[in-house]
Every structure is written in structure tokens, then in C-alpha cells.
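Reagents: none. Just compute today. 3',5'-cyclic-AMP phosphodiesterase.
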Amino acid sequence: HMLSKVGMWDFDIFLFDRLTNGNSLVTLLCHLFNVHGLIHHFQLDMVTLHRFLVMVQEDYHSQNPYHNAVHAADVTQAMHCYLREPKLANFLTPSDIMLGLLAAAAHDVDHPGVNQPFLIKTKHHLASLYQNVSVLENHHWRSTIGMLRESRLLAHLPKEVTQDIEQQLGSLILATDINRQNEFLIRLKSHLDNQDLRLEDAQDRHFMLQIALKCADICNPCRLWDLSKQWSERVCEEFYRQGDLEQKFELEVSPLCNQQKDTIPSIQIGFMTYIVEPLFERWAQFTGDTPLSENMLNHLRRNKAKWRSLLHKQHSSSRSNDHSGQVTGSQEQTLNKEETP
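Predicted 3D structure written out:
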């Protein structure tokens, strides 16, 4: 039974999604709400919870190679692992746990499969609605609030409680905006250097939940190679699709979206080096050298080495092809596929 292993870092979300018939998000969350005693604590109605989770799951676009309900389920499973880290677990309230899981599940809901700059330059209505600031994240949050209210999942709780839950959900989901990466890293570094995190305080707990969600959202490179590699291929496929759209509309092709120039290994190495490593090294500093943090950093280093070796192979194979002209994008892709260990 896969659910008995839901707290293990090597949990295979792709297999779980196949076994649940594409219902990984709903199945996982129903289980986790039970495991964490949230049904009982908040006196939730199982049928209403299920209906709400189906709304969330169905609001993800299954056509997106990356930003789909399986990514949401993956982030939620990672969040569950992080919530169990002793440094955090010892202080968390049922509210914190429910917020962490809900934010993880809904953090990319109704994602269009293109990024914020694309929405801005195509004058998408969401860009004007949110005045070009955290456009996608604001939309994910407001969509989540809409579904929460419509489902009446929390309608039996006092109004002040539900208002607080809605605001905190927003603050958590908005923290996943990658444009705010440095802001959060600087704050985390300062807290760790000053050793002034007081997890008895709701504010500090909320900040660490934001960090946990940010980690969960970009934890793909810290997974087993076979899982990690699938996520890398999916996210790059989504980038390339955006690049194709941009070419079609005669717009400038965004960074990382040019299939001819931006190869999967190079995109991944950059992402790991500048975004993932700095965050996860700080996270490990926060948790202390727990088995999970050590495991994640080990996977991260091994996976980066794998991409480096694939990058070198790619370079040497394109050099050997130089006499017959440049390697085309499609040739490069077949090379990628063939070289995958």
C-alpha cells in the first residue's frame, strides 16, 4: 500500500498518480488530513472535503507538462515530509499543518503553462488585474479562496478564523513567486546567523512555513535521479512550448524557452546552482543535519553531476557533428534521449 510510505523521500508520485487513476492530489490530501488529525480537529465533513479537493485538482491543467495536479501532489508530499522535521514539528499547531498542506496543494492552481513575463507582454487580463505583480501567484491564491468559499468547507468556523486562514494561504502562496527568492533567502540567512527564530511565535512559524513551501515547490532536483529527471524534462518541455508560442506571435523568445539554445542539462545546472542549492543549504542549517536534509543535499549533488556529464557528452557529440554543420534542435533532443543513463 503506497500510502503507508507517504512520509518517505523516495515516494514515487508518478506511480501513485497512475495507481489512483489520475487522482493523486485528492487521494493524497484526504489521507494526509486524516493522518494529521485535521478532520477531527476542525470538525470537517469528509464529503465536503472531498468535493473541495476535486475542485482544486480539476482546476489544474492536465495538458501542462509540468504545472499540473501531479506537481501539486508532489509538492504536498514534500511539504508533509518537511512538516515532520523535529525542529518544526515540535511547534506546529493543527492550523499550521492544515495551512501548509492546503497551500502546497493549491499553490499553482489554474496555471496557464506560461510565465508572468509572457502574460504581461501579451496583455493578458490577469496581468492588468494584478498590476504585473506576482500575477500568477495572486491568481492561484484568489482561485483557491473562491473554491474554499464555494465548497463551504470551513463555513462552520468563526468568520475571523476563516478570514485569517484565507490571508495566511495568500501569504504562503505568494511566497512561491521566484522573483522574491532573494528577499526570503536574506531573511532566512539573517534569522539563522542571529539564531533569533522563536517558533513559539506565530509570525516566525509562518515564516518557516513559507520557507518550507518554497523548498517543496523546487525540490525536484533533490529527488532520486529517475524522478528528478522526469520533472526536469517536463518543466523544460513547458518552457519550450512557451518559446514556440512566442515565435508564433513574433514576440521575443523568453530566457530558457529556446529549444535550440537552452538545453535541458544547461537549464538544470543553472537552476540547481543559483536557486536550489542556496535555499536547501539554508534549510539544512535550520533543520540541523537530519537524515532527510542530508539525503536531499546528496541527491542534489549527485543529480547535478549527472547533468554535468550529460552536458559534456552533448558538447562532445555536437563537436563531432561540427563538420556536417550545426546540430539541429531535434538532433540534439535525440542525442539527449540516447545519452540518458
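The domain at 1-217 is CATH 1.10.1300.10 (Catalytic domain of cyclic nucleotide phosphodiesterase 4b2b).
Action item: order primers for follow-up constructs.
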